[in-house]
Every structure is written in structure tokens, then in C-alpha cells.
Hints:
The chain is mainly α. Helices cover 77% and strands 0% of the residues. Helix 2 crosses helix 3 and helix 2 crosses helix 4.
Amino acid sequence: xxxxxxxxxxxxxxxxxxxxxxxxxxxxxxxxxxxxxxxxxxxxxxxxxxxxxxxxxxxxxxxxxxxxxxxxxxxxxxxxxxxxxx
Length: 86
């Protein structure tokens, strides 16, 4: 019973950390896009992703893959770590 509880707690912690990272990426991505006066459609096209995917990422409703973060950072002309920093 104890090992199951410990496993469940570790899983909850991982999910929380992952969710927190998504929020930071979405917020930071939107900030960078607006700072460069780009529309969501323009950024999506430049990054090679769908506008719907970008909307979900900015609303923190999607967990972007590392390759997607790289594409978005390249399209914005920033380092990927910029989108991951506080």
C-alpha cells in the first residue's frame, strides 16, 4: 500500500510540474509574439504549425513537443530557452 501511495504522489508531482511548464510556455510565447507585433496566423505559418495548434499552446491547453517549441522559437527569432524561462 505504501509503495502505491508513493508512486501515486510522484505521478501527481510530475503532472503538476508538466502543467506548470505548459503555462509558462503559453504565456511567454504570447508575450513574445505580441512584442513582435505578429498575429497568431502569421506566427503559425512562419513556424509551420496550424493556427489552431498555436491557439491551444497560447491558451495553455496543449503540451507542445520539443520540436514545436524549436520551430516557434526560430519563427520568433529567439532561443528556445527564452520560451522556457520565467
